[in-house]
């Protein structure tokens, strides 16, 4: 549904911190399904860990938050170019089950739970090959620039 060029319109992140490669499904006001391809060429693997590369859990959380951010921007019909920025302000109920390694395709799901006074709550989940990888409740805030 959204390729990388369109994703860059909705997320202010750029290499090496843009963690959503493609959006497969998006229902405004409801949910998003996106993915991040994990390759051995990622700069993070130079230090985490060179002999046993594992994609860091904190970046899995960030990838889920970025997918949620796209959903929020699309739902509000806003873009960073409009003077709006979507800030990651919290994560609750974070759980990890499976390691993510080069060659994996990290599927990212987010569903809107609530929106109150510009604070959005999303239920997020990450999967690899239909195996549960991580989950979190992500909070984002819409901030004007």
3D structure, described in words:
This protein is 19% helix and 43% strand. It has 145 residues and is an alpha+beta fold. The radius of gyration is 15 Å and the shape is globular. It starts with a helix and ends with a strand.
Tell me the series of helices and strands, N- to C-terminal: HEEHEEEE
Per CATH, the architecture is: Roll
Strand order in the largest sheet: 1-2-4-5-6-3
CATH topology: Thiol Ester Dehydrase, Chain A
Share in helix: 10-25%
State the total count of DSSP E strands.
6
Structural class: alpha+beta
Secondary structure layout:
Elements (H helix, E strand, L loop, with lengths): L3 H7 L11 E6 L3 E7 L19 H20 L7 E13 L8 E12 L2 E10 L2 E14 L1
Antiparallel strand pairs: 1-2, 2-4, 3-6, 4-5, 5-6
Entry keywords:
6-stranded antiparallel sheet, Thiol Ester Dehydrase, Chain A, 145 residues, alpha+beta, single chain
Describe the structure concisely for a colleague.
The protein has helices at 4-10, 57-76, and strands at residues 22-27, 31-37, 84-96, 105-116, 119-128, 131-144. With 145 residues, the protein is α+β, with helices and mostly antiparallel strands.
């Amino acid at each position: 549904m959204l390729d990388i060029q369109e994703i860059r319109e909705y997320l202010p992140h750029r290499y090496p911190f843009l963690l959503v490669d493609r959006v497969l499904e998006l229902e405004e006001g409801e949910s998003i399904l996106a993915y991040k391809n994990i390759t051995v060429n990622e700069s993070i693997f130079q230090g985490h860990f060179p002999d046993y590369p594992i994609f860091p859990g904190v970046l899995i959380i960030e990838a889920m938050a970025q997918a949620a951010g796209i959903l929020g921007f699309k739902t509000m019909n806003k873009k960073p170019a409009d003077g709006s920025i979507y800030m990651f302000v919290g994560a609750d109920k974070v759980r990890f089950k499976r390691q993510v390694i080069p060659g994996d395709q990290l599927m990212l799901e987010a569903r809107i739970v609530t929106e109150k006074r510009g604070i959005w709550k999303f239920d997020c989940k990450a999967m690899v090959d239909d195996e549960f990888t991580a989950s979190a409740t992500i909070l984002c805030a819409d901030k004007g620039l």
